[in-house]
Amino acid sequence: MLRVVHESVREVSERGALPVLVFDLDSTLFSTCPRNLKILEDFVAARGEEHPLLKEIWPTLTEEDMGWNVHESLQERGVEDEELLGDLRKFWAARFFTDEFCEIDTPVPGAPEFVSACHDAGAFIYYLTGRHVNGMEKGTVNGLVSNGFPLFTGKAACQLKPDFYANDKEFKTAALDAVRSLDGEVVATFENEPGNANLFMRAFPEAKHFLLDTVHSPEAEVPDPSLIVLDDFTSFQTD
Ligand SMILES: [Mg+2]
């Protein structure tokens, strides 16, 4: 199916229109697991002396154990101290939404290759992320460029939330107007949050809409059954 997107990009471009692809970043183009694991590592380093159980379970934790909430990974391994878990939530929130830590993320397999191939075939790449300005823009730019995603080419834009407190869904709803203002043809969108994927599907019914089956928020909407579910982008090479 990713090959079909690539072919559509070429076809739209060849008839003189602007093909547009919309990509979310966290848990869509990037895995946040390395970021979460590093935060846990730092927490264990900071608090492990007073809580030996933390030091004991740390070696058993891997990137694969990282879900939506890092404290759940500890709870699953027997950490029940509510005060400690509360401290971890604060420790996590103080780091997760920062330049320094978001730069730790690694690309979802095949993502840089797929985005680059579509870009080179004529697509305008629209990164639309719930990361925020004034705290995550430098890490976001460094992460995109150092991992081989096209950015400074004149055929890409990166829109972040105007501030940390802006509501994700409202932000992405308003951003649809910016996407439409390109006056192109939205060929496909990629998201891990079902609510946002549903939103894109309603906004651009002619496009293909992909839902990355990575992690999503606990209170997520029910995904529209016509969303195309993807684990990663490796099928672009093997299709
Ligand atoms: Mg996301």
Give an overview of the whole structure.
- This protein has 239 residues and is of the alpha/beta class.
- It folds into two domains: 2-32 and 105-238, Rossmann fold, CATH 3.40.50.1000; 33-102.
- 44% of the residues lie in helices and 16% in strands.
- It has helices at residues 2-14, 33-47, 52-57, 70-75, 82-96, 99-102, 111-120, 137-146, 168-180, 194-203, 235-238; strands spanning 19-23, 30-31, 106-107, 124-132, 156-161, 185-191, 208-212, 228-230.
- A six-stranded parallel β-sheet has the order 5-4-1-6-7-8, with helices on both faces. A two-stranded antiparallel sheet has the order 2-3.
- Helix 8 (137-146) links the parallel strand 4 (124-132) and strand 5 (156-161).
- The model has no long low-confidence stretch (mean pLDDT 95).
- Bound molecules: magnesium ion.
Task: Give a short synopsis of this structure.
The protein has 239 residues and is α/β, with parallel strands linked by helices.
Q: Which key terms come to mind for this protein?
A:
alpha/beta, two-stranded antiparallel sheet, Rossmann fold, binds magnesium ion, 11 helices, 239 residues, 2 domains
- The number of helical elements comes to 11
Poorly predicted tracts of residues:
none
The top level CATH class name of the largest domain? Alpha Beta
Which descriptor suits the 3D outline?
A: elongated
What is the averaged pLDDT score?
A: 95
CATH architectural type of the largest domain: 3-Layer(aba) Sandwich
Helical residues, percent: 40-55%
CATH topology name of the largest domain: Rossmann fold
Small molecules bound? magnesium ion
Total beta-strand segments: 8
Q: Helix and strand succession?
A: HEEHHHHHEHEHEHEHEEH
Structural class determined from secondary elements: alpha/beta
Q: How would you characterize the largest beta sheet? A: 6 strands, parallel
Strand content: 15-25%
- Based on CA atoms alone, the radius of gyration comes out at 19 Å
Q: In total, how many domains does the architecture comprise?
A: 2
